[in-house]
Amino acid sequence: MNSNSLINKLKDLFSISIDKETDLDVDISDEKGQPIQDQTIIPNEQSIEESKDITDIGYKTFSNNTELNSFTIPKHVEIIHSYAFWNCTNLTSITIPNGVCKIGEGSFSGCAKLPLITLPDNIIEIGKNAFWNCWQLSSINLPKQLTEIQAGILRNCYNLTHIIIPDNITYIGQNAFNHCEKLSSIIIPDKVTFIDEFWGCSNLVTITLSSKLEKIGTCALGNCNSLIDIHSKNKIPPTIKDNTFSKTNYIECKLFVPVGAYKDYRQAMGWCEFKQIIEE
């Protein structure tokens, strides 16, 4: 099958927009995980709504396709595999159906012009680095059924201004939110016991730390020089290092701690460096 014919079949199967015809390295899988190739890539004379053959979007299916502008994933797709849309640098619109339950590692990393993503609540797993280097991404919701935020998931999303971390989250991976430079506030859910992922959030003004937080990693909040308020909900001071926070934070931030915990924080390593500790 020549490249033009293949692209036309893709257009029939998916709702996509491209500037011009281009070569595509296609890796689309059926419900048994077998790649669909050549003449079997779409069912004859079936619309997107009727077709149930495509349940996965395979590894690197559309990666490095700089001509792809918009994409509507068919409603029967359940899994978006690793790097499926990696480095689609001109992708500005993506529609993900409610049936999707898993997004693989790096699936949308490098989609530098993608401004927003709406994720269905049915998603239970998002792989690491899934949205890394989505520079223009300003809005994304994390599904309520998600229990883990993998490493680097929103790293270098410079324009992200707001994020709500679902209450079911128990784990946040390394560098998950590093360099989210426009993020102004964050609340860590109470099931999270360790964080290590906000370095370089230069406009972060306030952060609320979970009541069960036990440890904060080295430089986890380094270079967050706009921080004004830190609310630590655990009566027992979490373990931190001298360089967990910037030196500016120790001087300018107000550290709010639970009633009765002032003495413990004043004596705890790292926390004792804060000039202002206030019970609330």
Report the total helices.
Answer: 3
Distance between the termini: 69 Å
Rg, please? 22 Å
Task: Note poorly predicted spans.
Answer: 1-7, 18-50
Mean pLDDT: 86
Structural class: mainly beta
Q: List the strand order in the largest sheet.
A: 3-2-4-6-8-10
Q: Oligomeric status of the shown chains?
A: single chain
The dominant shape is: elongated
Query: Approximately what portion of the residues adopt beta-strand conformation?
Result: 15-25%
Order of helices and strands: HEEEEEEEEEEEEEEEEEEHEHE
Helix content: under 10%
Largest sheet: 6 strands, mixed
Counting DSSP E segments of at least 2 residues, the number of strands comes to 20
Main attributes of the structure:
single chain; 280 residues; mainly beta; five-stranded parallel beta sheet
